[in-house]
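Researcher: I'd like a candidate sequence for this fold, 119 residues long. If you have to choose between options at a position, lean toward the conservative one.
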């Protein structure tokens, strides 16, 4: 059925950049809002960025001006470009899609991809 698969995580030095991708597939009638969340060890999951179907975006204050969320509707894919990475950005990053199947809208989550920012 519906699957979201993230890629692009890894180890990067402070000030570096990474681009995360999340592709959705399987039994999809429509995709509405998509978002990136992150969860650091011992912390609860927090919203990083969100993009609506029409392209409007919202960002959490700590990443504003450094991260950019975008989507390719033809590929059912959402991206997160992360620039000027800081140690505090270290976390597992998860994508979420609000996806309609069988005329029902549900939130689907990817498995997560690790981002580590360290010297």
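Model: Candidate sequence:
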């Amino acid at each position: 059925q519906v699957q979201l698969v993230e890629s692009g995580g890894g180890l990067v030095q402070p000030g570096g950049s990474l681009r995360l991708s999340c592709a959705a597939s399987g039994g999809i009638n429509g995709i509405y809002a998509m978002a990136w969340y992150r969860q650091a060890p011992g912390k609860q999951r927090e919203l990083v960025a969100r993009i609506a179907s029409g392209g409007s975006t919202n960002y959490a204050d700590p990443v504003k001006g450094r991260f950019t969320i975008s989507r390719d509707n033809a590929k059912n894919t959402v991206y997160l470009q992360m620039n000027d990475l800081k140690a505090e950005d270290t976390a597992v990053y998860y994508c979420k899609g609000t996806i309609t199947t069988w005329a029902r809208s549900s939130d689907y989550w990817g498995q997560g991809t690790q981002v580590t920012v360290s010297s």
